[in-house]
Design brief:
The structure is a homodimer of 331-residue chains. In chain A, helix 7 crosses helix 8 and helix 9 crosses helix 10. The model of chain A has no long low-confidence stretch (mean pLDDT 92). The first copy, chain A, is of the alpha/beta class. Chain A folds into 3 domains: 7-50, lambda repressor-like DNA-binding domains (434 Repressor (Amino-terminal Domain), Orthogonal Bundle); 64-162 and 300-323, Rossmann fold (3-Layer(aba) Sandwich); 164-296, 3-Layer(aba) Sandwich (Rossmann fold). In chain A, helix 5 links the parallel strand 1 and strand 2. The first copy, chain A, has helices at 7-14, 18-24, 33-46, 52-59, 77-90, 106-115, 164-178, 193-208, 224-237, 252-266, 299-311; strands spanning 64-69, 94-99, 120-124, 145-148, 159-162, 183-187, 215-218, 246-249, 275-277, 294-296, 319-321, 324-326. The structure holds a DNA duplex (16 and 16 nucleotides). Chains A, B: Pfam families: LacI, Peripla_BP_3. Chains A, B: Residues 5-59 form the HTH lacI-type domain.
DNA sequence: TTGTAGGCGTTATCAA
DNA sequence: TTGATAACGCCTACAA
C-alpha cells in the first residue's frame, strides 16, 4: 500500500524546500510564479494534495461541524439536513452527523466532539439538560454549540429557532376566523420544552379569544404511528358531539397519522368533522390526499444564521425568526 | 481562551512521563494500576482527554466514514441514515454526511475524503461514472469505497445492494397471480442504472409470463411531486380502457405521488381501476390512506455487511441480499 | 514497567 | 522570496 505523497517528497521532486511546497498551496503566500509552477507540476505528478489532518493539528481548525440528531422519524429532518450540509459545504465545512440514542448519548457525543476538535456543534432538534453533564465541564476550549429549531435550556448556548409565539398566534387567529371553537392539541413527547412551548402559546391565544379549554392529546413520540394511536385513543373515548372541532398537532408527521386514523377508522370528514393542523410543512402534507394546513419554519434563514455565527460573520446570540402559515384544506 | 490539556501537562501533574499518560489511555498497555490511577486522577483534574486529531495523524486512522448522498427527496433515506450512523457509531466510527450536488460533486468530495484520510467512503444511493474522475487517479492509499443500495459501475468498488432480480420476480409473480395483465413501470431518473435494472427485470419477468409490453412512465426525479406529474401526464393522455391495470413505481415516494394524482384528479379507485406498487416500504406507505403494496430492502443486513467490511470483519466483495414483498391493499 | 528518540505532515515565525 | 527551526499532540519502537 503506497502512502500519500507528502510535501517533503514533492519538494525533493521539484528541487525546492518543503516550505516552498506549502506556499504553493497556500493562497496568498509569497512565492514566485516560477517556483509555484515547478511545485504544482511535481505535485500533479505525485498526485499530491495537502493532508488536512496534519493541517488541522497545526492550525486547530478542522472545518468539521458536528450535528446531533436524536429523532429520525420525522421526514422533515431530511430537507433540513440537505440545506444544512449544502450551506456548510459552501463555507468549506463538512458535517459530521451524530446519532444521539441510548447507546450514544449527548455526553458521549460531546466528549467526542471535543476530542476531535470540531469547529462547532449543532444540536438539531435535540437538547439536553445541563445536569446531564454531571460534574464534567465544557471548558472554554470546547467547540461553540448552537441549538437549531428548538429552544435552549443551556446557559451560553444560543437557540436559533422559529418564533413560536408568533407562529401560534397566527395559527389561532386563522382557526378562530374559520369558526373553530373547540380546539385540541397533540404533543409528541410530553417532556420536551418545545412541545410545552407550542402548547402553551396555543392555549394562551385561544384564551385571548375567549376559549378557555384546550383538550390535550399525547403521542409518546414523533411518528405517524404515534399520532394515529393518540388520535385513536381520543376518538374512541369521545363521542362525536363532545369532540374537538380542530386538532393541532405538534408536527406534520403526527398530523398525518391522526388524519389517517380519523378518516379511515372513525369516518371523520376533514375538515368538516375534524379539522387538522400540523407544523413543518413536509412534502407529503401538500398532496391532495392530505391537503394539510400547516406552519412552515424559516428553515433557510435559521440555517443561514447559524452558519454565519459559526464562520464569525455574525454575532453569536439567540435568535427567533418568523415563519408563515400554509393554509390548505384540512383546516 | 484556555487550551485543552495535553498528555505532557497531565504527566507533570501526575509526576510521570507523558508516555505513561498515553499508556493509561491505551487499553491493554502495560502499566501498573498505581501509575494508572495517578494519571487518571490528574487527567480528571485537568479535564484531559486524548486529542483524536493528533492520534489520527500518528496512526493514520481517523475513525470517520464519509457517506455521500445526492438525493434528499426520498424520505426513505432517513431511517437508513439512522441505522447506518447507529451501526457505525457502535464500531467507534463517526459519519461524515456529504451532500453531493452541483456545487460539490463526486470528484470534489472524493479528493476531500482522501485529504481527510477517512477510513472509508460509502456511496449511498449515489454512483458516478469512472470517467468523471478524468485523469485523476484514486491511489492505493485512497479510502476504500462501497456502494450502498445501488449497483456499482466502478471496477474495484463493490456494491452492497438488494437482489433486484429476485425482488422483481417476486413482485411480478404476485401481480400476475392477482390477475393483472397490463403492467406499467415508472422510473425516477431515466439514466440511473438502478432504474434501468429494476425496469429491465420487471419487463423480463412479465415477458416470461407471456406479457410482452410494459408501458414506461418517466418522472425526472424522485419525489412525490415528480411521481404525481408523470402519472398526470400519462393518465390525461390515455383513456381508461387502454390504461395499464397496475403501475409499479421505482420507489415509494413516486408511488405515493402517483396514487394521489390518480385518485384525486382522475377518480381512479386503487386498486380496482389502477393498482400501484412501490419500492422501499416507507412509513407513510403503511397508513390506511395509502396501504401501499411495496418491496422492502434488507436495509439492516446491507448496512451490517458494509460495516463489517469496513472494520475488516468480512471480506470485501459485492453482495446482493434478498428483501421481501410487503403486500397491502394498493395491489 | 517506565523513560527516551524519532516521526506523523503540516503551520508559524524568524533569519537569510 | 526562500530556507530553517520549532511546535501541534500523539504513537511506535527501542532501550533502560
Amino acid at each position: 500500500m503506497r502512502k500519500r505523497a507528502t510535501a517533503k517528497e514533492v519538494a525533493e521532486a521539484a528541487g525546492v524546500s518543503k516550505w516552498t511546497v506549502i506556499r504553493a498551496f497556500t493562497p496568498g503566500a509569497s512565492i514566485t510564479e516560477a517556483s509555484r509552477q515547478k511545485v504544482l507540476q511535481a505535485a500533479e505528478a505525485l498526485n499530491y494534495s495537502p493532508n488536512l489532518l496534519a493541517r488541522s493539528l497545526a492550525t486547530n481548525v478542522t472545518h468539521q461541524v458536528a450535528v446531533f440528531v436524536d429523532d429520525f422519524a420525522n421526514p422533515h429532518k431530511l430537507p433540513v439536513l440537505e440545506m444544512l450540509t449544502e450551506r456548510l459545504q459552501a463555507e468549506g465545512l463538512l458535517t459530521v452527523l451524530i446519532n444521539i440514542n441510548r447507546h450514544f448519548d449527548h455526553v458521549h457525543a460531546l466528549i467526542n466532539a471535543d476530542q476531535r476538535q470540531f469547529d462547532a456543534v449543532i444540536l438539531f432538534g435535540t437538547a439536553f439538560r445541563e445536569e446531564t453533564l454531571g460534574d464534567r465541564r465544557l471548558g472554554p476550549d470546547f467547540p461553540p454549540m448552537f441549538v437549531l429549531a428548538r429552544d435552549s435550556q443551556i446557559p451560553g448556548v444560543p437557540a436559533i429557532a422559529c418564533n413560536a409565539e408568533l407562529a401560534l398566534s397566527q395559527v389561532v387567529d386563522y382557526l378562530f376566523d374559520k369558526g373553530y371553537r373547540r380546539p385540541g392539541f397533540m404533543t409528541g413527547a410530553r417532556t420536551l420544552s418545545t412541545a410545552l412551548g407550542r402548547r402553551h402559546h396555543y392555549a394562551n391565544f385561544w384564551r385571548r379569544k375567549g376559549v378557555e379549554s384546550v383538550i390535550e392529546l399525547n403521542a409518546d413520540r414523533y411518528s405517524a404511528d404515534a399520532g394515529a394511536e393518540a388520535a385513536r385513543a381520543y376518538l374512541s373515548a369521545t363521542p362525536p358531539p363532545s369532540r374537538v372541532d380542530v386538532l393541532m398537532c405538534e408536527n406534520d408527521i403526527l398530523a398525518l397519522g391522526a388524519m389517517d386514523t380519523a378518516r379511515s377508522e372513525f369516518g371523520c370528514r376533514v375538515p368538516q368533522d375534524l379539522a387538522v393542523v400540523g407544523f413543518d410543512n413536509i412534502e407529503l402534507g401538500a398532496t391532495p390526499t392530505y391537503g394539510l394546513t400547516t406552519y412552515e419554519q424559516p428553515t433557510y434563514e435559521m440555517i443561514n444564521t447559524i452558519v454565519e455565527m459559526i464562520t464569525g460573520a455574525r454575532a453569536v446570540e439567540a435568535v427567533t425568526l418568523p415563519g408563515h402559515l400554509v393554509p390548505r384544506l384540512s383546516a
